[in-house]
UniProtKB/TrEMBL annotation:
Stated name of the protein: DNA, SC003
Protein's organism: Aspergillus oryzae (strain ATCC 42149 / RIB 40) (Yellow koji mold)
Domain of life: Eukaryota
Length: 236
């Protein structure tokens, strides 16, 4: 049993009474939540202000029932008032759990859980998109120049773990040729700021991540784009 009115609390029913099992370390004006379960004991929770958090109860102990910091947080433009488990479509990655979220204005969101290899490849693609003037025309010039497409931090904040499917969908529409252009362009590279990533380093990183996820292929760019379209596709 669980509740999320002020913060997520998970209760166990034992001997005709409810016993606290775990609780979120932050208080939020909660709206909805759904248990995903699995080895990580995941729970997806939404709160007012557009926040959606992925929490785990794995490290909870008898002496410390406070949940760790959220794995991932998405900050959306509208608050999700209802979260519901969905059915995984055959085109999706086999590891994905599907959750649908409904907002008061009628917007429907689809949330997917990702394995590490999937996330790392999508994170690289998202960084490439954010600095591209066609796919993300409203990104500030400073953010484009400082976006570390060829660099991966050892630690990420929860908000940095969210992959924005709307951004990646704009890439999928433009196809493999545009992805290749983003991988090799020197528009954002400067030797004085190597953390932005040289075209060679970015392309090599892309090949490494695509091989880790999809295996050895004759055309990694096309195969990644096919996989991306299948992942983003909403089937009914």
């Amino acid at each position: 049993m669980s509740t999320s009115r002020e913060s997520l609390m998970i209760l166990n029913a034992s001997e005709e009474k409810l016993v606290l099992h775990a609780y979120d370390r932050q208080k939020h004006d909660g709206l909805s939540h759904v248990h995903i379960g699995g080895d990580m004991q995941l729970t997806l929770a939404s709160s007012r202000g557009g926040r959606v958090s992925l929490l785990t109860g794995r490290r909870v102990t008898e002496n410390d029932k406070m949940m760790p910091v959220a794995f991932c947080e998405a900050h959306l433009s509208t608050s999700v008032t209802k979260l519901s488990p969905g059915t995984r479509h055959s085109t999706m990655p086999t590891s994905s759990q599907v959750i649908y979220g409904t907002a008061m204005n009628g917007t429907v969101y689809r949330f997917l859980t990702l394995k590490e290899k999937e996330w790392r490849l999508l994170h690289l693609l998202q960084n490439l998109c954010i600095r591209d003037t066609v796919i993300c025309p409203f990104t500030s010039k400073r953010k484009r120049q400082r976006n570390p497409a060829g660099y991966e931090s050892l630690e990420f904040q929860p908000s940095q773990m969210h992959i924005n499917g709307d951004i990646l969908n704009r890439l999928s529409i433009r196809g493999p040729s545009y992805l290749m252009y983003m991988l090799v362009t020197e528009e954002f590279y400067s030797p004085s700021t190597p953390e932005t990533g040289s075209p060679q380093a970015i392309y090599e990183r892309f090949l490494e991540l695509s091989k880790d996820l999809l295996g050895e292929t004759s055309n990694p760019v096309e195969d990644v784009m096919m996989w991306l379209k299948r992942t983003l596709h909403v089937g009914f």
